[in-house]
Amino acid sequence: MRPVLRPALGAALCAFTLTLAGCSESGVKVGGQVTSGSSPFKAQAGETVRLGLADEAGKNNFDTEVSADGTFSFTGSNNQGVPAGKYKVSITRYVEKGAKGPPTPKSLPDVWDVSESSKTFTVDLAKAK
């Protein structure tokens, strides 16, 4: 390679690397526990519970399934976490076939302010409306 092209190629490679680094946005891994009043939530046989997060601008929406022991984790897009910010929380309970009517999402009065220092939350089913 000619000596004149090396600096130009190096500069182009550096710019490309910086562009890629700027595109990989990482977020916050959010998790916690679902309760029913003061008791830990335990899913019934055949029951599935999902939590949803929606940011106030309506640009970012995430959902996750709650484990049978009531724990949950939002890993975000491409396992990169959830962008920091404020989120409204919703919960949907699905039961076995044969239940009357479709599942209805319920909103919670909670607004989560997600950040690296605030990433573990408790969801109380008793507050769902």
**CATH topology descriptor:** Immunoglobulin-like
Q: Give helix % range.
A: 10-25%
How many β-strand runs?
8
Largest sheet properties: 4 strands, mixed
Strand content: 35-45%
CA-CA gap between termini: 69 Å
Rounded mean pLDDT is 79
- Can you tell me the residue ranges where pLDDT is under 50 for at least 5 consecutive residues? 4-24
- Gyration radius over CA: 21 Å
The CATH homologous superfamily name equals: Immunoglobulins
How many distinct folded domains? 1
Quickly give the CATH architecture. Answer: Sandwich
Q: What is the number of helical segments per DSSP (H or I, 4+ residues)? A: 1
Helix and strand layout, with pairings?
Elements: H1 5-23, E1 30-36, E2 39-40, E3 48-55, E4 61-65, E5 71-74, E6 85-94, E7 106-114, E8 120-124
Parallel strand pairs: 1-8
Antiparallel strand pairs: 1-2, 1-5, 3-4, 3-6, 6-7
What does this structure look like?
The structure is a single chain. With 129 residues, this protein is mainly beta. The chain has one domain: Sandwich (Immunoglobulin-like). Helices cover 15% and strands 39% of the residues. It is built from one helix and eight strands, in the order αββββββββ. Strands 1, 2, 5 and 8 form a four-stranded mixed sheet that branches. The termini are far apart. The relative contact order is 0.22. Residues 4-24 have low confidence and may be disordered.
